[in-house]
Write a structure and sequence with these properties.
Largest sheet: none
Order of helices and strands: HHHH
Low-confidence stretches: none
Number of strands: 0
Number of domains: 1
CATH class: Mainly Alpha
Radius of gyration: 16 Å
Shape: elongated
Structural class: mainly alpha
CATH topology: Helix Hairpins
Distance between the termini: 42 Å
Helix content: over 70%
Number of helices: 4
């Protein structure tokens, strides 16, 4: 639980994604038509939060191991950030499909 506290206390992206999750929870009940759709909606945001925690851990470890600027560290951080971006796209797709399915199809 220390990781949750540390991330929420120090990382803007984690704070934003946790707030998004809390705001989206009640909305997900109205968007989802089935329990599976609800699980996909909430799960996609939990996956996003998990990816952000992992990205933060990788960045902090990189900064600890090699505090100076180094190309290999930059690439490592960029790869971790790209992983977060992929999960953002996935979550957006899940929510978009659920909204379209609920109200437009």
């Amino acid at each position: 639980m220390g990781g949750f506290r540390e991330g929420l206390a120090t990382e803007a992206a984690i704070k934003q994604e946790a707030a998004l999750l809390l705001l989206a929870l009640p909305v997900s009940v109205f968007v989802a038509e089935t329990v599976w759709a609800w699980a996909a909606l909430v799960g996609s945001l939990l996956l996003l939060l998990a990816a952000e925690f992992l990205n933060t851990a990788i960045e902090r470890l990189c900064n600890h191991v090699h505090p100076e600027r180094h190309e290999a560290i930059k690439v490592t951080k960029d790869l971790a950030s790209a992983g977060v971006f992929c999960v953002i796209v996935l979550a957006a797709m899940v929510w978009l499909v659920a909204v379209i399915d609920r109200w437009f199809i």
